[in-house]
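P.,

For your records, the input lines for the assembly:
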Amino acid sequence: DTEVTQTPKHLVMGMTNKKSLKCEQHMGHRAMYWYKQKAKKPPELMFVYSYEKLSINESVPSRFSPECPNSSLLNLHLHALQPEDSALYLCASSQPKRGNTIYFGEGSWLTVV
Amino acid sequence: SQQGEEDPQALSIQEGENATMNCSYKTSINNLQWYRQNSGRGLVHLILIRSNEREKHSGRLRVTLDTSKKSSSLLITASRAADTASYFCATAGPGVTGANSKLTFGKGITLSVRP
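Structure tokens returned:
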């Protein structure tokens, strides 16, 4: 069982919609991550937050907008997505120290129609 | 770009047999982690091995790391049908600091354990 909780588990949205994915962890971790995973592919890093500040943006299109309101929460705001953005979005957290284990949530399945 | 490359890409064994999966990587690392992913689910962390370690055990899992060959292996002993999943190795480079624990995943291995 994971201690990283993601909601919703499934989301279907139109290309003109605005929606958000949410992630919460109560392990006291100060680093949080968003990964994107297409079917039968490995996860790919999108964003890293460290102490609530954005530290890595892997050249993600601006239609994905991350937000870290506090040390326990991480959001991913979605706007004007394309069908090819349909994927499993995984949130993860860790202690912000090199070499620490990264713990993943169950993911949010996103379908863009 | 992917750092790790697992081998084989698919493995089918009988329950009770051992499963060995290999991972090779290209650049220097701080640590290597193995994850399991059941179909349509999130990633479950299995084990982390640091660059100064050669072998680690956790229950039925044994991981080895050979930094000279830039390779790692994951051995699952006495496999069970419940071990059926995709397995990924992931590496964190030595150059990252602080929270920049940027994991790069291999393509994954699909393990099927037949009852």
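Two observations worth noting. Chain B touches chain A at residues 2, 30-31, 33, 35, 40-45, 48, 50, 88, 92, 96-108 (CB under 8 Å). Residues 37 and 43 of chain B are 5 Å apart (CA to CA).

Regards
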